[in-house]
Design brief:
A six-stranded parallel beta sheet has the order 2-1-3-4-5-6, sandwiched between helices. It has a single domain, classed as Rossmann fold, CATH 3.40.50. The longest helix has 17 residues. The chain has 271 residues and is α/β, with parallel strands linked by helices. The protein starts with a helix and ends in an 8-residue tail after the last helix. The chain is globular and about 50 Å long. It has eleven helices and six strands.
């Protein structure tokens, strides 16, 4: 009887411990914001709300960036260090710089599997990273782009004026700031071409578009012959909103997007 009890107790301990195991231990989510973004954000920013959804619904752990146990990673556009806070004008640096920062996250966590949510420019960086880095390509399980110009932006005099306004007012850029991003996301750039040509066989990729988005058109935000896409058509509550981050500001829609990213749960389509 005593022998049976000795064998049984460790089994009970193991069962008890298994209930405390975090089955997401090896998973990490990277959130990549768009052009002219900054980090840290204020409490009303969609990034803060999204992290709360991930923590509450999927039990991911949110620690300081660079912490070995961190599972919700805020991508940094910093020119100095992938763990640093960054300023809006740093988003205007080259995609090569941004891919380098992304790759350093993967170097920090060489055995993890990654799920990337990329908004606007962030989606281009996620896909370009996978197309240019074997490390990123191999370890990335899923990428969801939201209102991302993955087909590129057409070069024109009209767009040139708009870009200048964005640089000056949204990104607080100065005359001597390094600005390379526009060439890198033009429809003629090598990075945009690589997205079209690369075989994303290791990674599930979904594009989410909003027909009311006044910044990135539906046509630029989806590669319909390559990736499945979902239309979620939503308008800003603000009178003069641009409807560019509207989907991520909505808690119900954000929850659906995160479920798609992590669990591959399909979204109701408005297309």
């Amino acid at each position: 009887m005593l022998k049976k009890l000795i064998v049984f107790i460790p089994i009970l301990v193991l069962i008890s411990c298994s209930n405390d195991i975090n089955h997401n231990d090896n998973k990490k989510i990277i959130i990549i914001q768009g052009i002219c973004s900054r980090y840290p954000q204020d409490s009303e920013h969609w990034g803060v709300k999204i992290k709360k959804i991930i923590k509450e619904n999927h039990k991911f752990i949110d620690k300081e960036t660079g912490n070995i146990d961190d599972q919700i990673i805020d991508f940094s556009y910093s020119r100095n260090n992938w763990k640093n806070n960054y300023y809006p004008q740093e988003t205007l640096l080259s995609i090569k710089n941004h891919i380098s920062n992304l790759e350093k996250i993967y170097e920090k966590y060489p055995t993890s599997e990654f799920y990337i949510l990329g908004h606007s420019l962030g989606g281009v960086i996620a896909l370009s990273g996978a197309a240019n880095s074997e490390k990123i390509n191999k370890q990335t399980k899923s990428i969801v782009t939201v209102s991302s110009p993955i087909k590129g932006i057409i070069k024109s005099d009209e767009n040139s004026g708009l870009k200048s306004l964005i640089e000056l007012f949204a990104c607080n850029s100065k005359e001597n700031d390094e600005i390379k991003i526009w060439d890198d996301i033009s429809n003629e750039s090598k990075f945009i071409k690589q997205i079209s040509d690369h075989d994303f066989k290791n990674t599930k990729v979904y594009n989410i578009v909003n027909k009311y988005d006044l910044v990135v058109s539906i046509e630029s935000a989806k590669l319909e012959k390559k990736f499945p896409y979902f239309c979620i058509n939503e308008v800003d509550k603000e009178l003069f909103g641009l409807n560019h981050s509207t989907l991520l500001d909505n808690n119900v829609i954000s929850t659906e997007i995160i479920n798609l990213l992590i669990d591959d749960k399909k979204i109701l389509n408005d297309c």
